[in-house]
Specification:
The protein has one domain. With 164 residues, the chain is an all-alpha fold.
Amino acid sequence: MMPEWLKMIFAAVVGGALAIGGDLLVRWWEREMLRDSLRAGLRGEITALAENQGYIHYLEGLLSELKKGVAWEPRDIPVERSMVIYETNAPTIGLLAPCLIEKVADFYQMVNRSERNETNLNGGLFHILEDANKTVWLEAYIASERSLNEKGIKIVQALGEGCK
């Protein structure tokens, strides 16, 4: 038979261990839910950012006209590049698998570069270039937009399937 004081200590230790274990389980669950929510939000936002085929088609048309010698001025076509999910969740990006953190950050850096290129096209440096240089610049811009699209598709797959 166990003394009464030992039963009380045992009960306190077991109760404390159950409370701590329960708290850890709840925290783990909340972290998993936050991670899942972050991945879902980023998948949606990256998909939207990478869906730039219409814009690429527009740029290819401009390049074709430029190569034919058609006088051309870019139209200010706004490309919506909302990064609200990434910007508001930047502190929690570390919840993603390590193999995804760098890919996601790199993708958003590409989006920022693309926005600068768009600014240059619609009213910046593009206008002061010679026609031959405009062609080269526009070809590079189209290539970077295609790369943005391809990288975005791969990241969306990785966010859904996990790291490989």
